[in-house]
Amino acid sequence: MSNETLYELTYAPDGKSTAAGVWGAVRLWDLETRQATDYPTKVKNDTPRWVSFSPDGRWMAVGTFRGVRVWSVHPKSHHDYDLSLGNATPRRVHFSPDGRTFATAALGGYNSVVFTR
Fold first, then answer.
1. How many angstroms separate the CA atoms of 63 and 21, rounded?
2. Regarding the domain with residue range 9-114, which homologous superfamily does it belong to in the CATH classification?
3. Confidence of residue 91 (pLDDT cuts 50, 70, 90)
4. φ/ψ of residue 51, rounded to 5
5. pTM to 2 decimals?
6. Which residues contact 101 (CB under 8 A, 6 or more apart)?
7. For the chain, what percentages of helix, strand and coil (3-state, to nearest 5) are there?
């Protein structure tokens, strides 16, 4: 690992990988092989402030000052969500237990999104 600042660190539900917010990306480490894969944020220099895995571990919701990006871990693809929180910065996101929706909270409000795969 380098000397980069980590803003968030979380384990995948299966415990085989971990994800961290680093400058401009979420870095996903395979704990067995020690290989890392970067999943870029919506804006190049936007640092993820939180990361949440879906219960099945197939999806990562990534929150930055500019919104939410949901990544498919394998194959690597993404979808950006406009959460209509006005000028509020998303602070947390969590998937529902069945993984079909996720909710996000911000100072001054919250929103939930039906997650379509």
1. 9
2. TolB, C-terminal domain (2.120.10.30)
3. confident
4. -140, 135
5. 0.81
6. 95, 112, 113, 114, 115
7. 0, 50, 50
